[in-house]
Each structure stands twice: as C-alpha cells, then as structure tokens.
Amino acid sequence: MSKSEFLQFYPVSHETSCKLSEYVDLLLKWNAKINLISKNSVDEIWVRHVLDSAQAMNYMKKSQKTLDVGSGAGFPGLILSILGVKNITLVDSDQRKCSFLLEAARLLNLKVRVINDRVENINDEEFDVVTARGFASIDRVFREVVRIKSNKILLLKGKNHDLDIQEALQKWEFEYITYPSITNFSSHILDITNVRKK
Q1: Residue 19, Cα to own-chain centre: how many angstroms?
Q2: Burial code of 71-100, b = ≥16 C-beta within 10 A, e = fewer?
Q3: Measuring CA to CA, how many Å separate 76 from each of 28, 147, 197?
C-alpha cells in the first residue's frame, strides 16, 4: 500500500497527510541507524504500521486522555497524536526510541509527553484509554498497568489473540469486545474494560 492508497482507504486533511509523510520519512531515516521497525516491513509501512495504528481511532475519541505503552517507533501513539488525539503520553523503556519519539514530536509540533521508563513505574495517574501494539501478552499488559486507573485498554493483537485471551482469563476477570483488523484478517483489536485480578 502506498500513501495514495492509504489516503483512499483512510482520508485525512492535507495538513495531516503531510505530517504523516514527514513522520514516515523521519522514521525511515532513523531506522537506518537504530532498529525501530523490521527491515521486512519497510516496504509495507503505510499499511502494516500507519494504517494498522490509525484504525485504533475507530474505538476511541480524540478528547480522551491516552497512555500508549511500549510506544517504540510511535505505533500507535504518535499516529494517534497526528490524527488528533489531544492528550497522549508515550512510554518506552528504550532511551534511543524515546529520543526518536521526542524528535518526531518536535519536528511535527505534536503536543505529546514522552516518558523514558518502565510502565509499571507510572503510578497515581488516571487515563481514559491505555493503548498498546505488539507490546506484550495480555496478562503482562494487565500486570504492568494494574496500578494505572483507566476506563479501558485498547490492544492491537496478532493472530494468536484467542490463545492470549484464554491465558489471561486464567488469572484475570475482564470484559472485552473483539474487532477484526482492517489490515490483516488474522489480527484483531481488543477493547477491554473492567479488569480485575482473580
């Protein structure tokens, strides 16, 4: 999928389109120096990373205070910010990735907060939504964000999401809705609420 095909599938304003292009260009430049995305996915960046992240907007509101866990190269956190999420915090334990996130936010004039730390060290703060993409198992996500007050957790998961859910249900009680991904028939978005330890 090219940028033009992305725009046909997910139309955005000219300003947003330009910011997405600038972001992709910066990501590819940095990726030559540090491993932000796999080299196998570079040719599919618009569908595999940008569109895959953008679809999370279908299940949240731009006004919601959001915490993006394991932000890495900015998926989905920076994409959500470019698309208009007003209050978003990006967390990653890798200092080099946080340097990239800060540079991207500066160049694109994005009002995001970047925290270089492990998510379990974030306490006493409330968020409307916690997002994560390719970060960890559902069980681990719950363990690491259990002290964070949030109304829901939005996870972009791959083909093994069913097994992941069943394993998490052995240790946790939670409600969830599963939505099919628009980028990969075997992937899904999990909209999770009311998480509590068994």
Answers
A1: 17
A2: bbbbbbbbbbbbbebebbbbbbebeebbeb
A3: 16, 22, 27
Q: Are residues 133 and 75 in contact, defined by beta-carbon separation less than 8 angstroms?
A: yes
> The CATH number of the domain where 153 resides is what?
3.40.50.150
**126 beta partners:** 149
Domain span including residue 162: 55-197
Residue 183 CA, chain-centre distance (Å), reads 15
Task: Determine contact, residues 24/45, Cβ cutoff 8 Å.
Answer: yes
- Looking at the domain assignment, is residue 18 inside a domain? no
- Give the separation between CA 191 and CA 153, rounded to whole angstroms: 6
Residues 142-183: pLDDT tens digits?
A: 998 888 889 999 999 988 899 999 999 999 999 999 999 998
Domain contains 96: yes
Query: Tokens at residue 163, please?
Result: 């097994």
Q: What is the value of pTM for the model shown?
A: 0.94
Domain assignment present for residue 120? The answer is: yes
The answer to whether residue 41 is domain-embedded is no
Number of domains the chain contains: 1
Determine the Cα–Cα distance for residues 148 and 122; give it in Å rounded to an integer: 7
In whole angstroms, what is the distance from residue 135 CA to residue 155 CA? Answer: 9
